[in-house]
Amino acid sequence: MMGKEVDEMGFFKDLAAVFNKREMTFIDSFKESENIYSFLFEKDPDLHWEPGQYGLISITHKPIKNATKPFSLASAPAENVVRITTRIGDQPSEFKQALLELKPGMKIKMSGAIGSFSLKNNNPTLLIAGGIGITPFRSMLKQHAASGNGENKQIHLLYTDSKKSYLFKDELDALADRSVADVTYLDSRENLEKEIESFIARYKDNGTFFVAGPKSLVASVSAFLQGKKISKQKLKKDAFRGY
Ligand SMILES: Cc1cc2nc3c(=O)[nH]c(=O)nc-3n(C[C@H](O)[C@H](O)[C@H](O)COP(=O)(O)OP(=O)(O)OC[C@H]3O[C@@H](n4cnc5c(N)ncnc54)[C@H](O)[C@@H]3O)c2cc1C
Fold first, then answer.
1. Cα 135–141–56 angle (5° rounding)?
2. pTM score, whole prediction
């Protein structure tokens, strides 16, 4: 099938999924690191997602402004739980305050999962995460490990964080030990670009690229890739607002 037809099919699938709003029961939350929290929800048996996709999460236990926001599903379908992981600073938005107020058994709503940010082919793949942008990649790599075909695909993860506060580091290291992916931790722009260049040099035109994180990082990495003649079709982006 042609790329455009696949995109159009994806669009209609997404549209249908957006209207399919479901209640989800909150199970628990925990602090991952300073200012980063994960929230776990029960997964309905009929909820399906492709690792890397996101849900539109709505707060329903009280009226707030901007009650619906997109969040990558950080869990793999194989984990049988819905997990979102987010940064909550000293002055949280109303939405994030409401997340912190959730008690086990309370409900939120989610529509989706939606988006085309998922591994679709067997090409060598470069995943580029900036900070909190690691969330969709956790799902992809966990699912990849669970489906047992870790060694058949070349996946490289470049994870950059200026504060070297690498979320999910123990899990990512364990996945790297099992050869699910090569994982490189970075803390500077310069080294990130060097690593991207070495991937491009190694795989020439065969590579597929994913970049996720704060909007500014996604924009600058995309511009860098386009400068290296990587076509738009080979690049998928998840730009997180509010960071
Ligand atoms: C495809 C996609 C996937 C995404 N996945 C994730 C994900 O996995 N994890 C994630 O964290 N985000 C993700 N995002 C971004 C997410 O949707 C939010 O935009 C982001 O988390 C910021 O939310 P916020 O409520 O803090 O933002 P905003 O309301 O935009 O607030 C931004 C900042 O403004 C300040 N602020 C806002 N309201 C107040 C207030 N009432 N009082 C004081 N200060 C205030 C706070 O400092 C806050 O941090 C994703 C976005 C997209 C498009």
1. 35
2. 0.92
To test the pocket of ligand 1, the residue of 62, 71, 97, 114 to mutate (highest count of ligand atoms within 8 Å of its CB) is 71
Is any ligand 1 atom within 6 A of the Cβ of residue 238? yes
C-alpha 146 – ligand 1 centre gap (Å): 30
- pLDDT tens digits, one per residue of 72-91: 999 999 999 999 999 999 99
Q: Is 117 in the pocket of ligand 1 (CB under 6 A)?
A: no
Q: How many domains does the chain have?
A: 2
Q: How would residue 149 be classed by pLDDT, with cut points 50, 70 and 90? A: low
- Which structural domain range is residue 230 located in? 125-240
Q: Which of 77, 94, 114 is at the close of a domain?
A: 114
Q: Judge if the beta carbon of residue 137 lies within 6 A of ligand 1.
A: no
Q: For the chain, percent helix, then strand, then coil, each to nearest 5?
A: 35, 30, 30
Residues 224 and 139 in one domain: yes
Among protein residues, the one with the nearest Cα to ligand 1's atom 47 is 91
Q: Are 103 and 36 in contact, with CB atoms under 8 Å apart?
A: no
Dihedral sign of CA atoms 146, 28, 162, 50 in order: positive
Q: How many CA atoms lie within 13 A of 199 on its CB side?
A: 28
For ligand 1, atom 9, the nearest C-alpha belongs to: 86
